[in-house]
Amino acid sequence: MKTRYKTTALAVCAAVIFTLTGFSAYAENLDIASQVDTDVSASLVSGKSGILMEPESGNVLYEFNPDERTQIASVTKVMTMLLIFEALDSGKIHYDDMVSVSEHAASMGGSQVFLEAGEQMSVDDMLKAIAIASGNDAAVAMAEFVGGSEEAFVEMMNKKAEALGCENTHFCNCNGLDEPDDHYSSARDVATISCELAKHRDVFKYTTTWMDTLRNGAFGLSNTNKLLKSYNGATGLKTGSTGKAKYCLSASAERDGMNLIAVVLGAPSTAERFASAAKLLDYGFANYSVAKGDEIVGAIPNIAVQSGTADSLPVQLDGNPNYIVKKGNLDKIETEINLNSICVAPVKAGDVVGSVVFKTDGQKIGENKIVAMCDIPKISFVQMFEKNLRKFFAK
C-alpha cells in the first residue's frame, strides 16, 4: 500500500481566509464512493427479500428487493434490543436491575419463557430470554421497564427507526407477535438497525450463547438461531417466523476481522432462511476484505500552530476509517492526504484540518476527514511575551 501526502504551505493571511470552518464546509460535501458490486446475477436468497451489509462501513455487498415492505415477525426484537442496550449504555438501567412482570407481559403467547405476573427477573436474564429464546413476554416486560409502557416504548422504536433513516419501517409492538398491516420493515432497514445494534458489543454475549438457563437453572434456554452450530464465525443475531412473515432472519458473522450482517425475509421454510443467510455470508467472505484506514495511514504529522498557546496540533482520522475492498486489492490501496501545514489559533478539538482519500487502481473507495485532537486557545499578549522570554533565555 502506498501513501502520498499533499501539504499546502499557507501564509498567515491565507490561513485566515481559509479558516478551519471553511474547510469543514468543504469536507462535508466530499463525495464518498465504495468499491462494491451489488449487481450479482446469481440468486442467493430464497424469499421475498434479502441484503448483505458490512456494519462498520455500511457498505451493501448484495441486495435483492431490499426496500420491499414486509412483516418481519420476531426480527422486530433487533430494535427492542437496540433500545435496551442504549438504555444500559446511558446508565438509565443496569444489568442487575430487577424487572417486575406485568399481567400484560405475562399474557404474551408464542415464543416465551412463561413469565408470571408479579415475577421479578434481572435485566441480564431478560436479555437472555429475548436474545436466546426470543421470549415475547420478556420483550414486553423490558419495553415496559425502559419506556414505562409498551406503547411508549413502541413510540421510541419508531423514532429511532426514523433517526436511522429507515424509510420502510413502522412498529406496532415490541416483539412482532401480532402483525397488523402497519407493522412492517424491509431487508435494508432491518440490516441498518442490526448494524446499529452490533455497535453494542455486549449483545454478542447473548446472541452467541447456544444454551443457558433461567430461574437458578430451573428453566432451560436454547438458541433459535441454528447457524450458531452450523456456520463458522456466526455471532447472532435474531430469528423470526409467523404465518404472515414466513421465515425471517438477521444473521451476523465474523471472520478474519471482518463482520457481516445478512438479512433474509419471507423465506418459505426455516431451512431455506438459514441456507440463504449462509449463502449471503459465504459470498461476502469469499469476495471482500476490510481495509482498516487508521492502520494504512499510520501516524499523521502534527500541524504547526500560529498565535496559539501551543506550537503544534496533534491530529487524527475522524469517524469510521474502515472500508470494504474486493479481495486481492488490500495491497493496492493508495492514500492521498491533504493536510494544512499550518493553522491559526484558536483551534477546537474536532475542527477539520484536512482529509484522506483512499483509492485502489485510481478508484476512490472512501474518504475521511482529519480533525484536531485537542483545543489550542489563542495566545494572549502576556503569554506571548513570557513565551518569547523563555525562548530567549533558553538559547
What does this protein look like?
With 395 residues, this protein is of the alpha+beta class. It folds into two domains: 126 residues, Peptidoglycan synthesis regulatory factor (PBP3), Domain 2; 228 residues, Beta-lactamase, CATH 3.40.710.10. 32% of the residues lie in helices and 28% in strands. The chain is built from 13 helices and 19 strands. A five-stranded mixed beta sheet has the order 1-16-18-19-14. A hairpin with a 5-residue loop joins strand 12 and strand 13. The chain is globular and about 80 Å long.
Overview in brief:
The chain has helices spanning 12-17, 20-28, 77-90, 103-106, 123-131, 136-147, 150-163, 187-198, 203-207, 227-230, 270-287, 293-297, 381-394, and strands spanning 2-8, 49-53, 60-64, 98-100, 120-122, 211-214, 219-222, 234-242, 246-255, 258-267, 288-292, 303-306, 312-313, 315-317, 322-326, 333-340, 342-344, 352-360, 363-372. With 395 residues, the protein is of the alpha+beta class.
Give the arrangement of secondary structure elements:
Blueprint: E1 2-8, H1 12-17, H2 20-28, E2 49-53, E3 60-64, H3 77-90, E4 98-100, H4 103-106, E5 120-122, H5 123-131, H6 136-147, H7 150-163, H8 187-198, H9 203-207, E6 211-214, E7 219-222, H10 227-230, E8 234-242, E9 246-255, E10 258-267, H11 270-287, E11 288-292, H12 293-297, E12 303-306, E13 312-313, E14 315-317, E15 322-326, E16 333-340, E17 342-344, E18 352-360, E19 363-372, H13 381-394
Parallel strand pairs: 1-16, 12-17
Antiparallel strand pairs: 2-3, 2-10, 4-5, 6-7, 8-9, 9-10, 11-15, 12-13, 14-19, 16-18, 18-19
